[in-house]
Amino acid sequence: MTLPKSVVVREVGAREGMQIEKGPISTAEKIRLVNLLSECNFPEIEVTSFVSPKWVPQMADAEQVATGFTRKPGTEYTCVYLNKQGLERALAVGTLDVKAAVVVSASEEFSHKNMRRSTEQVLADLPDSLAVARDANVPVAYLSVAAAFGCNYAGDIDLGAVIDRFTRALAVAADAGVHIPTLLLADTMGWANPEQIRRTVGEVRERWPEHDIRMHLHDTRGMGIANAYAAMQLGARDFDASVAGLGGCPFGGDHGAAGNIATEEFVHMCHEMGIDTGVDLDRLIDVALQSESIVGHSLPGKVMRGRALHTYR
Fold first, then answer.
1. What is the pLDDT of residues 172-186, one digit of tens each?
2. What is the pTM of this model?
3. Among 78, 124, 232, 290, which has the minimal tally of Cβ within 10 Å of its Cβ?
4. Active-site entry in 40, 79, 151, 249
5. Where would I find the beta strands (DSSP E) of the chain?
């Protein structure tokens, strides 16, 4: 259980953080958040989602946000889309590093709520989705299993369901001649605990050692950072995080609970343990504090109030 010397931190607050906000947030403020995050040296910032505003109203200005920010060299600016129409919108703006992702839910109930399709339908549609990406010269970045540790609608999720989703989706991709380099485990509704993380990450790494492991952890029940540490002990070195703990899943049924692990808390933990992130923690803490004025309410991040330990040394 050797910890990595460095990890990749992908900032998702500008996208996932915004999607759950109920109050009005101006396009200018969304752009300001992306520009502020750009000064923190992230390798990737998720900017927006090209999805139906009927289901996610905060993403109605996706094109304006995607064309309004200032790119910084060394950072990839990505987005989320769910179908061919979303991909076409993402490519049309011409400012983003567009990548494809395959998402399958370990929970049948959550699949219907989040994607409005059954798992079988998602898998059946996958060859067409991969073909759309290939025809557009868009690489497939990762395969994600959502609700991999538990679900507010289905309860506990058996590890066998997670393995089944990875196995079947990878087989479809292989038949299509598509290599997916990264497997993402998403604790979409914050059910995981560290021991469960160890079992699941350990099993996935044992079965597919040639794939990188990426973690998407929610802090809904206060175990997000502990879960990240457990994943690192098993060799995971690629993590999603959200500045100040912004966000959550609009279809998770958790009624305003905390979203992703707060980026500054994860970065602070890594730096205290000698793990390099490449992220400017002091700038990030300042951005976390400014994020509250952008969304108009307090956010769950703690390090932004206590400040980093190095400031007291």
1. 999 999 999 999 999
2. 0.95
3. 124
4. 249
5. 8-11, 44-50, 76-81, 100-105, 140-146, 150-151, 155-156, 182-187, 212-217, 238-241
